[in-house]
Structure formats: structure tokens, C-alpha cells
UniProtKB/TrEMBL annotation, chains A, B:
Gene3D superfamilies: Anticodon-binding domain, Bira Bifunctional Protein, Domain 2, YbaK/aminoacyl-tRNA synthetase-associated domain
Cellular compartments annotated: Cytoplasm
PROSITE patterns: AA_TRNA_LIGASE_II
Name listed for the protein in its UniProt record: Proline--tRNA ligase
Top-level enzyme category: ligase
Gene Ontology CC entries for this record: cytosol
Family according to the record: Belongs to the class-II aminoacyl-tRNA synthetase family. ProS type 1 subfamily.
Description of how the protein assembles with itself and partners: Homodimer.
Record's comment describing the protein's domains: Consists of three domains: the N-terminal catalytic domain, the editing domain and the C-terminal anticodon-binding domain.
GO terms of biological process kind: prolyl-tRNA aminoacylation
Keywords (A to Z) from UniProt: Aminoacyl-tRNA synthetase, ATP-binding, Cytoplasm, Ligase, Nucleotide-binding, Protein biosynthesis
Keyword Hydrolase: no
Length: 593, 593
């Protein structure tokens, strides 16, 4: 196929769009791949549609190789199934909701676990029908509070979402692995660097869950990894419990006056000034900070919890959300403190000289949870539950106990990987794929059961697997560009070759036409810049902006049988005999694929 | 590619779905092509998706051949552009409307004139950029009051919609013709019978408009055609004006008592009883019926009009809607009559013995319009505007005049085609395509102008062209089935060949596997029924239901090198040497394409 630039629906733009912050957004708009329709909602122009189609082809091929079968669901779906799984409510304002003319509730689906589950329930009834993995490539909707970065976080976006259905846990593990392997092949074929990180399953529920992150500074996710191969989403990082220490021989607690020390920094200052020790200075990590959080449970009830953690850490609210899900969590409010005068702000602790106020033995009715580092035998400076007073040498397991563990503190670089593979470092990434073992949550909620080998009804176990197609395109643009424009890899480029004819000499265009026909004959998808009145500079600028990886310049030397091959990715330019162009380009393409 | 029935996500059903009335709906559900999600909203199963993809490929090829370029718009669009063209309001309850989290209004687009217009406005500015024709294949939404017949009238459906942009009227005519020609090629390739009928442009506005109707009893549209080649939508049929007659020598009007004759039937009875003539009987067509209609204009004002037409015709409200558009039209209400006591129900006419009450000379303030058959010199029996009285021999042009023509009477079989090509007959059809010359309506409303050759801003003229992709699939199923199931034509069948291995003999399956590999090697898309435990009867039944046109049965005789070729469309069965199967099928396919 040949596409002529004189005919192509395209206007390249000199200026970055005003709302664009990241390179992929700027370049995809400037090069005429996409065009904004509303916040986070884009139209696809001919070039954009071509790149998207190539990405989808790779995904379809690998889904077929993994034995997944393509189906297609509507975006507009009735409320009931999402009500049954509680997601109608859980999605909150992220869900686009609407009513039809009969005032029946509908939604624009953000993801399709429910209808896939119901479809399998509808058609299948026996273990013999399983396993089955179904997928679709489909436009999804999420009413993001802050749509940003072009295609990186849109409100309408294309996803490949797959769902597996198995009778046994082992079956699920296999189906999961098949999708996971397919994802590795897809990202490898796309030339996209990725890290597989352990992920919290979040609102999806379920057991095993991994994210495919593309490491990039424009990424929205922070993840941690060790040199030894550990990688996890920050929400999924599990702090290893410290080792317990002997309680025997530890000094008794001492209550000290610490006026104006309601912050950890103030307390450390005060201690180092008035409780100075000769052996070492007081550090924030010597203190036990007690944070009051308010949980809102699904039944609407509000519960306060206090979490104790080393004073050099803050609460990571995202990690807290995971730990306390499905309850919503927020810092306790003024009115919460007002209702609980025993929670002395700035001087809160698990202990007073007259006994425990928090934890298992307390009568406050408020759960007290501890960071995994606060283990038996560790000594802490903490609040004495009296304004202007702290207590030193308070020993965990001796002077106070807790109702449980809450691993919600910030993760720091240098913290140990939980698998012992060394200290972790933090990096930023963009989620490009996600694989979940959902388990039986959806099948239970929607009644998906099949008869097993013994004729007994068993609940099906499911997996859910997503790849963001439009996001991948943005990440590819993010990874493949320079200051002149896009530099697509062959396998997703909108065209195989971009032929640029320059000058006003009609003979040049005749030669270019011939070359274009030849390339077409050899199966190349060709973009041909045949615009006679456009200057070479503008044509080269457009070629750089559009980013087709192989460019052939047909100019003055064409009459002597010579053209220029220009590799857009390496910048290499080379004089080549016209007769050799087809074989050179075909060889280049074969080696790239 | 080979798809194994043992693996395919499919459950064929013995029973018709309870809500299905037409064959395509029953069979597409029973054969596992589609599955209902909500009224008029379907999921696409693997087989359905394959047929749909093949239809889309044919459409894409012909769009490319017509020079149209593919783009893709979101379904979710902001209100403003549709407000600017008034369609936000005009669509009424057929539009799915919703709000995002900021309470901004959005819609699910039923058609995309507005965003295409804005996109061209956004990127193009000169006559040099035009003409351009853009299209998309995209899922559309209409909140139909009565979604029915499966894919024939859905609330979510796939359309190919194209839009052309030209500077001149001649350019528009060419762009229109290119799409019209492409549509003819598409329907021909699909093997779909079609009639091109003149159509009313309806809510779309504009000048020339034609519908592609597939003649079928399950069609929702009535159209009329003559043996001489005229064809039109009933709404677009234009009644030829009758010839004027001489007024001289016509008898004077006579007012007669006609008690209890407020209906045309009653009047005719009365006339034939008490005003009997020797030359002939009174007919309904001798009477002039005057119908009072209430128009609601876009500014909300209400206007009464009276339309006079021969008494053997009723008003066709759909034709009336077209004539009075954009006003809404309905029969006058009790309260309308109450407000206008001079409109004597059942005895209404344009004339009284003391002068005209309706028409140009009236002072009622109510417009009086006439059917094209009521021309100068024609004589009528009509109401005398007094209860129980009619007037005979009222001569149009002498005794009454009108404010204009309103061609809103029912069309009858036998009426003349307006082009003189003979009497018309009525037929039913299903709209499968529609081409419109929109003209400058949308460009004006949305400010799409370009600079012409003289540097002057001119408004662009547009065309709009739609094909219902999912509806075409239903029509194809409607046209290609028998009482056993579907009988797809080769070009849209989900597979090229369906190989059925029968019995329990492992050797048969080995031979079938070999044949399947060979067919795959020759580029055939093969469905292989490899289910060892399913009886031949069930396999044949499934093959008939699924409707792949070429079936190969590998059974007992396979050991002797003989299989059976079964043509699903003709029912022909033939014993063939295995060695000949590939060449026989490839030849069959070549001749079908």
C-alpha cells in the first residue's frame, strides 16, 4: 500500500499543545496521530490508528498463541452485575453512570469481570468445558479525577482484557502463567523494557497479582527493587519483621518532662539537650510514633485505630489503604480527638505509669497496631499520654502489647528486600500490564458454578489480565523519540518506509513514483511525500516528526541512480544505488523483526 | 489457522431465545455468534466476531478504493458541539446522556457529524486541503424505544460512518458519488440485494439523500417503486400535481344538509342516499377532507394549520413530519378546537356561503394548505363550516384558494411515480446504507470555513454516509439460512472450511488432522470438529447450524482415501478422494470470490 502525503489527512504542528506535559503527548498531537476531544478523550487520526492497529496485531497473535479466544463486549452495561460484586459502589466517582429512557441504571464499563463471568455461567456448566481463557480488545471508560499526559492516563482508553476460568487452583496457576508468559512475549516484541513487580490486588480482590511496569520518570507508580531481583509495587512491599531481643536486663521506663515536644523533631531536640547520653545521640528511629487513623467501614461505621511505628517514618496512605481495605482510611479528625480525650495529641503512647492505655490490655476500645519493626524486646521513647511528657525505655512485649500488625509505614531506599536479596532502591514506572489471580470472588458473587468429575457443583476460579493498548502506544512514543520527533521501532511504525521526493524537477518525482511502486510490490507499506510545492526542509522536518524509521530521500542525484537512505533511529545517512534500495530495506526489516 | 471445536468457546442451543422473533436473531444466538447483555445490547462471541471482521474488511477495502481515510472517534463526547447543531435537543429520548464527575454534560454519540466537522476545522484551513473524505468503523448508541430483532435494531451497534468535505457543490456531488459507488460495490461483494431509494433527509438536513434498502419482509421501512425504475422511501415520494381544469362552465356551489355526516364514510352514504346522481355514485375521492394539525416550532410556539386533501386519503404522519420539519407535528387537540370555534369539527371546509374561512383570503390566522391533487378547476364536496352542512361543487381556484401545498397524504399502491415511469407498488425493506448531501448546515453551525482561491473565507459543504455493520450481519443471516441453520456466503463465513471427523476410530482423527494441516498450509481458515465423544448426528447438526459453507466429512471411508464434500448452501454431497480435497476447495473458493 502507498499513502501519499498530498492526500493524507494530516497537519503537522509546530507548537506543543498547551495542555501537554510529557513528550509522548506533545509529539503524538504535533505529528498528527491523535487529537483531543475532551479531557482524557482523544480522536485517532490515520497515523495513530495505524500504530494502534499494529500493537493490537501483536497482542492478538500472542493471545492466540496462549490459547485465549477473542470476544467483544459492549461498553454500555447494566448495573445489576456490578451491584452484585459491589463494584457499582466501590468505583465511586471513577465510574461513568447513566440511565436509559426507562430510567434503568447503566455504566460505561471500566473493566469487564462481571459480564465475562456471566457469559461463562450462561453457556458452560461442566468441568469438561474448562479451562477457557477469553479476551477482548475494547474501549474502556474511567472518569479519572485528573486525566493527564495524553494517552498515559485517559478517561476513554483501549485495553486488552482477558479472563481465565478454571476448576482448580492449579488450573488457575497455569492459566495465569500462560498469560504472564504471553505478556513477556508481547512486551519483548514491542521492544518495551519492563519489570514484573508484586502488586497489591487492590479493588480487584484475589490472591496473586503482578504488574508489568515500564521504568520511566514519567511513570505514576513507584516501585522498589533489589539488586538480587526482588521487585514490588510500594503498596505490595512487605516489611520484614525485626528480630526479637531479650527483655531481661532492660532498664525500667522513665517518664520525663518534654515541654513543646509534640513533634518527633522537637522531641529529639529536647532529648539530646536535656536527656543527653554519652554513648550516642537520640535519633528519630529511637522514638515510637503513634498515629491515629479513622477507618470508614463498608457498613458506614467509623472506627479509630492507633498505629505505632518508628518515629523516622511517616504513614504511607496508599499502603494503609491496602492494609485496611475495603475500609476507607484517613487521618483522625479534630472531632475524633475531641471525642477521645485520652488520645493526647503529640504525647500519645501505649503506656502510662499506671498501666496500658492502648493495645490488648487496654479498655479504650481502640485497636492498637504495630509496625513490623516494633518487636518484643525493642526499647522506645514514646508519649506518656500526658501533655508535655514522654517515657524513655519503654520495652515492647514487657511494657506494652498490641492487637496486631499494620505494615503501613513509608518504604525507604535501603530497607531490606523481604526475600533477603539485599537493600531496595526506589524507581518510577508506568503500569503497562497487570495479571491477577482473582480466585473465586467474582464467581461466588455471580454464582458461576460447574459440575465437577463427581457431579458436584463447584465454584469456578478466575484470573484477570489487562494490557493498556493506548497507554502502550504512549509509552512507546515516550521511549522512542528525540528532540526532532518520533522514532518508531519497525514493528509498530505507521509505515515501513517513508519516501521523500525533493525539489521541483518532475524527473525526480517520476523516479520516486517508480521506486514507490517497487517497494509496494515487495510488500512494503509506503508513505510517499509527493508534495511538489513543499520545500525539502519542511519535508525533512515532517519526516523527523512523523518518525517512520526508514526514510529514502529521492533528490538531485536520483538522475544518476543514487538516493539517500536515512535511518531515523540511528541518524545514519547513506548514498545507495536506487537498484539496491528494495533489497537493502527488505533486509533491514527482516533483521528488525 | 485451525480452530478446534473441542477448544472453541461455543455452546450451540436447541431452543430459540424467548425474545427472538426473526430468523437472524434466533440463529445468531442459537449458533453462538452473539449473546444478549441488555435490551438491544449484545456481546460478540468468537464466531460472531469473525463474521463481523470479514464484513469490516470488505468495507475498509472499498473505502480505501474510494479514497476515504480511516480515523476513529470516541463514543463519549461533550455536549457543546451537539448543542450548536441543536441535535442535543432534537434527538430527544433517543440520546444516551450522562454527566462526568464535574457535572459536565456528555453523550454517547449516535452519529458523528459534529466531531468530524470540528476535526477538519481544527486542522484544515485552505481549499487546497480539500476535498477530503474521512470514515470510521465505530460503535454507536441510540436509546431506541423498542430495540428489536436482535442486531437489526440495537441500542449499541457498529457503523461505518463517512463524512466528505468539499468547497463546491460540484465537489460534494463527486464525493457523494464516490461513496455511493463504493456502497454498490460493498453490497455486491457481500451478495446483498439492494434498492437505492430517494430518501427524506430527516433530522440530518441537507439536499440529496438516498437509502440503500435490502428488500425483506422483516424490514422496517416501506418504500415504493415503479416497474420503470423509480424507487423512493414513502417519506420521499412526491405526489405529482394534477392537471388544472377549466373553471368556466362549472356549476355553482350548493349547500346541502348532511346531518350525522361528520366522517367521510357517513358523508358518502348521505350523498348517495339524498343527493343521488344518475351519472355516477359519490366516492370518497370526490370529497375534500380538511385536517387540522398542530405544529410545535423550535422556539416552542404552537401553530395550527389546516390541510385539505381528497377524502380517500389519510394523513401519513411520517410524511407530515418531513414536510413540517423541524417543527413537531401532531393532530390538533380538543383544546385547540375549543380555542377556535370557527373550526367546525366534521364539517370543516375552506368556504362558507358568506365567504372563505380558510386560505389566502381568510382572516382566521390559520394557514390553509392543499394536497397537490387539489388544483385549479377541480370540484369538491366539502364541509360548509356549519354543523350538519356540506357544500357541493366547490371549485378550487374559483371558490377557494390556499396558502401553499402540503404533500402529506398517504401514498397508495397504483399512485403514479413522479418521474412518469408508471404506477407504484409498495414493498418492505431494511435500511443497510444511507448517503446524504448534508450541504453547509453543519459547517455553518460549527464555523467550518476555509480560504478559497481568492483568499476569501467560504463555508465548506459536507456529505455524510453510513453503513450499519452489525445490521448487515443480521441481514446476511436473514438472507442466508434454512430451517437447519445458517448458510453463510464464502466471503463472510467465519471459516473457509469446516472439517468434521466422525466416529471413535483414532485412525479417522489422524487422517482428519493431516487434512486439516494441509488445508491450513494452503491458507484456508479451518474449523475442525475434533470432538471424539460427540455423535456424528450432533456434529452434523452443529455444522448445519453454524453454517460454514464448505464441509468436509472424514468418516469410515477415510481409510480408503475417500471423504465427503458437503456444500452447506446447495445441500450437495459428493464423495471425493482425500488427495483432491485441497484443490477442490481452493477452486471453489476462487470461483466464489
Amino acid at each position: 500500500m502507498v499513502t501519499r502525503l498530498s492526500h493524507l489527512f494530516l497537519r503537522t504542528l509546530r507548537e506543543d499543545p498547551v495542555d501537554a506535559e510529557v513528550a509522548s503527548h506533545k509529539l503524538l498531537v504535533r505529528a498528527g496521530y491523535i487529537r483531543r476531544q475532551a479531557p482524557g478523550i482523544f480522536a485517532w487520526l490515520p497515523l495513530g490508528l495505524r500504530v494502534k492497529a499494529r500493537i493490537e496485531t501483536i497482542i492478538r497473535e500472542e493471545m492466540a498463541a496462549a490459547g485465549a479466544q477473542e470476544v467483544h463486549f459492549p461498553a454500555l452495561l447494566p448495573r445489576e452485575p456490578y451491584e452484585a460484586t459491589n463494584r457499582w459502589t466501590e468505583y465511586g466517582p471513577n465510574l461513568f453512570r447513566l440511565q436509559d429512557r426507562r430510567e434503568t441504571d447503566y455504566l460505561l464499563a471500566p473493566t469487564h469481570e462481571e459480564p465475562f463471568t456471566l457469559l461463562v455461567k450462561d453457556l458452560y456448566s461442566s468441568y469438561k468445558d474448562l479451562p477457557v481463557t477469553l479476551y477482548q480488545i475494547q474501549d474502556k471508560y474511567r472518569d479519572e479525577a485528573r486525566p493527564r499526559a495524553g494517552l498515559l492516563r485517559g478517561r476513554e482508553f483501549t485495553m486488552k482484557d482477558a479472563y481465565s476460568f478454571d476448576v482448580t487452583d492449579e488450573g488457575l496457576a497455569e492459566s495465569y502463567q500462560a498469560q504472564r508468559d504471553a505478556y513477556e512475549r508481547i512486551f519483548t516484541r514491542l521492544g518495551l523494557e519492563y519489570v514484573i513487580v508484586q502488586a497489591d490486588a487492590g479493588a480487584m480482590g484475589g490472591s496473586r497479582s503482578e504488574e508489568f511496569l515500564h521504568p520511566t520518570e514519567v511513570g505514576e507508580d513507584t516501585f522498589v527493587r533489589s539488586a538480587g531481583g526482588y521487585a514490588a509495587n510500594v503498596e505490595a512491599y512487605q516489611t520484614p519483621a525485626s528480630e526479637a531481643l531479650p527483655i531481661d536486663g532492660q532498664p525500667e521506663p522513665i517518664v520525663v518532662d518534654t515541654p513543646d515536644s509534640s513533634t518527633i523533631l522537637g522531641l529529639i531536640d529536647e532529648l539530646n539537650t536535656n536527656q543527653a547520653r554519652t554513648d550516642r545521640a537520640w535519633l528519630a528511629s529511637d522514638t515510637l510514633k503513634n498515629v491515629v487513623l479513622a477507618l470508614t467501614h463498608q457498613d458506614g461505621s467509623r472506627e479509630l485505630v492507633v498505629v505505632g511505628m518508628p518515629g523516622d517514618r511517616e504513614v504511607d496512605m496508599k499502603r494503609a489503604e491496602v492494609v485496611f481495605a475495603p475500609a476507607d482510611v484517613e487521618p483522625a479528625s479534630e472531632s475524633d480527638f475531641a471525642k477521645h480525650p485520652r488520645l493526647v495529641r503529640g504525647y500519645l503512647g501505649p503506656w502510662t505509669p499506671t498501666g496500658a492505655v492502648l493495645g490488648e490490655t487496654s479498655s479504650s476500645g481502640i485497636r492498637y497496631l504495630l509496625d513490623p519493626r516494633v518487636v518484643e524486646g525493642t526499647a522506645w521513647v514514646t508519649g506518656a499520654n500526658e501533655h508535655g511528657k514522654h517515657v524513655l525505655s519503654l520495652i515492647a512485649g514487657r511494657d506494652f502489647t498490641a492487637d496486631g500488625v499494620a505494615d503501613i509505614a513509608e518504604v525507604h531506599e535501603g530497607d531490606p528486600a523481604p526475600d533477603g536479596s539485599g537493600p531496595i532502591e526506589a524507581a518510577r514506572g508506568m503500569e503497562i500490564g497487570h495479571v491477577f489471580q482473582l480466585g473465586r470472588k467474582y464467581a461466588e458473587a455471580l454464582g458461576l458454578q460447574v459440575l465437577d468429575e463427581n457431579g458436584k457443583l463447584v465454584t469456578v476460579t478466575m484470573g484477570s489480565y489487562g494490557i493498556g493498548v493506548t497507554r502502550i502506544m504512549a509509552v512507546l512514543a515516550e521511549t522512542n523519540h528525540d528532540d526532532k520527533g518520533l522514532t518508531w521501532p519497525e514493528q509498530v511504525a505507521p509505515f515501513d518506509v517513508h519516501v521523500v521526493a525533493t525539489g521541483k524537477d518532475a524527473a525526480v518525482y517520476t523516479i520516486a513514483e517508480e521506486l514507490v511502486s517497487q517497494l509496494e510490490g515487495f510488500g512494503h507499506d509506503v508513505l510517499y511525500d509527493d508534495r511538489p510545492k513543499v520545500s525539502p526542509g519542511v519535508k525533512f522536518g515532517d519526516a523527523e516528526l512523523l518518525g517512520v524509521p526508514r526514510i529514502v530521500i529521492v533528490g538531485r542525484t536520483a538522475a544518476d541512480g543514487i538516493v539517500e537512505l536515512w535511518n531515523r533511529r540511528t541518524g545514519e545517512r547513506e548514498q545507495v544505488a536506487i537498484a539496491d534500495v528494495v533489497s537493502r530495506l527488505s533486509a533491514a526489516e527482516a533483521s528488525a523483526n
